[in-house]
Specification:
Elements lengths: L3 E4 L9 E5 L5 E9 L6 E8 L5 H17 L10 H8 L7 H19 L8 H11 L11 E2 L13 E2 L7 H20 L26 H11 L3 H13 L3 H5 L6 E2 L4 E4 L1 E6 L2 E6 L6 E4 L2 H20 L23 H14 L8 H12 L4 H8 L6 H4 L2 H4 L2 H12 L11 H7 L4 H14 L12 H8 L3 H13 L3 E2 L6 E2 L32 E9 L2 E10 L4 H13 L11 E7 L5 E6 L2
Antiparallel strand pairs: 1-2, 2-3, 3-4, 5-6, 7-8, 8-11, 9-10, 12-13, 14-15, 14-16, 16-17
Amino acid sequence: MASKITSQGHSGRRPKGGIDQLPSGALRVRVYAGQDRLTKKRNYFTEVVPAGPDAEVKADKVLRKLLVAVDEDRHPKTKATVSQVVNAHVPYMKVAESTRRTLIRYADKHIHPLIGSYPAQLGALDLDRYYAELGRCRDHCTRPFIQHRTHRRHTCDARCAPHECKPLADWTIRKIHFFLSGAYERVRRWEWVTINPMTLADPPSAPQPDPQPPTPDEAARILNAAWQDVFFGTLVWVAFTTSPRRAELCGLRWKHFDLKRKVLYFHRNTVQDGAEIWEKDTKSGQRRHIALDDQTTALLIDYRTYCEEVAAKHGLTISDESFIFSLQPDGSEPYKPTTLTQRYNRLAARLGINTTIRRVRHYSATELIVAGVDIRTVAGRLGHSGGGTTTLKIYAAWVTEADQRASTILLEHVPPRPPDRMTPEERAKTAPAAPYEEIASTLRNRILVGDIADGATAPSVKDVAKQFSVSVGTAHRALGLLRTWGMLSGAGRGIRPCVVNTGEVIDDTWTPTVAEPPIEGPVPGTDGAVLLDLTLLRRGEEIYSFTAQAKPDDPEQLRRLLMGAVKRRGTTDAELDDYDLEIRRSGQSGVISTFAAM
């Protein structure tokens, strides 16, 4: 049927509404609703009535309803899509920059691809289907595919496997829900939509808290393992005794350590987004003052002395503005939060403990509450805004005798700090943790036993990267660690080992391995050499231990190992008689023999 005008505006004006018949037989009701607020084009309020014997009667009712809505200004002022609503909301959000970036990533991955093209006025069915998809697969797959470990060109290994659907976490779905709800509430005030459709949504319930803190025994094992490196040991100790968030821990500067009052101030967060790092206020906006026990205070004093010694070796100094925890000798850059998480989680995994750095705070809270510390004091140490928000913002209101008692209680549940500190470089010789340390340790052992002769050309960075299947950066760090140990000199392909002299020439076909298992018997092709645990003694006092491959009954090989170990300490040949080499078979505690150079 032809277009049928059932209502008009004032005399001589364009008709306000009409009914059109579609090719399917259905009737489309259209009412002019003014200019679109977003596109500035003509905006029509439309609704389709299915074909049927009483379709015209229903269409007339719909037309009158739409005309009344337009006359009473109860109609959407735009035909915006969900993506347009979200994008219009983002510039006006009053949130931290890190939160803004997170929400934008959620929109790019979970909103725009799924419902971004939908009309802004979503229905309950649209929302139910949307949340069902979020709870099905976080990657929103449509067919099976291989989940590669990286998007770069690479050779697939066990880490590249068929994709397995995993639902989006309930907390993440709730964040998306409140993000959309805020966006719709804003455009509702702009009159883009008549109602906020998110009120029709049924998001997941908030998950029940499940802290799962490590047990005191697990905490002790983690702390003892962390002390193999004075930097990481101090960091983990401070985390267990002061309970900061990881971003607060990385944001600590030396000016935040008040030695006179024995207090640590948490004022700033170090925030990371990929390679970009910046500082901001703490999560709750509070400036916390955490009382320290005597042992933690002494530890930080010793740690600053250690940092100053490291900086002095590089011709640098430590200032009050330097970050307490930093990989830079002068503390000019903070320790990255993601690096802290990865290193702590790897340490826990090596110990067989299922925990994360975040659960350190759960551990502290649990131990304090069980010990009887009042909730207000616990909340104050953790920086929680609930449970007495106003009083917890005031330093004098909660740093009291109870807080001093809290610091002592935490100290009672951690193991004592090791009496002797070991530098990361020394620790890597006997207990390598990172991949580059394992590579350097393997190369060092081959140099010590003479597999790589003194003066022979060491493998290049590219050769090491290829042989160990690691990145060029990891290979570069491994060779740099060998130079730190004094076992390499020069640069580029001119790098040469400078320890033992076996007269052998490096084999270009040599393919080392990162980790070699203990060898109980002779190694094939090495003429009876086995893996030995060696301890250097000076006048009966243990200096350090290392592992090497040699014949336990070959005096010449043992002499070379002893001389190499002694020379790395800067000792002259005249003092060689003061040193002995204690020999054990790798993995065994019994001493085979003690070798002394005569």
